[in-house]
Design goal:
0% helix, 18 strands, Porin, 305 residues, mainly beta, globular
Amino acid sequence: MFLNPALTGQIGEDLFRLNAHARNQWSGLSGADGKFLYETRSGGVDLSLFKKRFGVGIYILQDVAGGGIFSTIQGNLALSYSFIMGDNTLSFGAQGLYNTTQLDPSDPRWGSMGGQFLESSRSYMDCNFGANFKWDLYFLTANLGLAANNLLEAPQRFTKTGALGLQVPRSYKTYALLDFDMTERMKLLPGFYGSFQAVSTNFVMGSNFSYKILKGGTYGNSLILGLWLRTNDGNLESVIPTFGMKMNKLQVMMSYDAHVSISKGGNSKYLDGITNSLEISIIFTGKPKVAPPLLEDDFILNPRY
């Protein structure tokens, strides 16, 4: 849902998905005092309704910067609709978001801007939109997508009086994610992701490799290894190894964002300090033993008494 609202409810044969995510960044930068300079926590749930045609979901995301000097909480409600064309699916999705920021005006790090000039809490609303095409070739599945965030470019303001605030620029995302069955036990999962906001660009490319250790359960138990590269504004910024396990319908993934920070000019470590990041995500999918009537196509036109 964070990547693209069109992916809401795209859960394969399952009917619901639970996810949780945590990321800690930049403990080694000057001024971090041994703490993580930037932390992200999020969690959500989405449902697949009416035989995979309709998806609904909600997730909440929190960012904390500077050890608590500034924090953001964002709630998102996502809806999607899918056109099923044989083995292929074209999905469209939309999100409404409510964003609130909190800061401590008395913190001395704000300097002369703090105190009576800064507002401790501000909020705004905006919306996102996206489209995804799932192309199924039996041995190869591809997801190709586009998404646009902050379509209203709502202004974000931190002062009590004066300026009305600055508009949050629109951001755009594009991606291609592949799932290739090499053998009965082995999968290759290469991908590409790009994002654009104002003058900033960010690209991630690489692949995961999955090996099914045991065939038990619905999906089996698999070991996942991967390697990805990330560039930021044209700089090769990070090498990202990934590791994970898929145990039937539970998937746990961990990645370590190792910053190499090689700039366009050839300089390395152009940031002062170690800027590595650790990220962990947990996803669980499932479906009830007896599907509720709402999940059946004919429920509304043919209710059961």
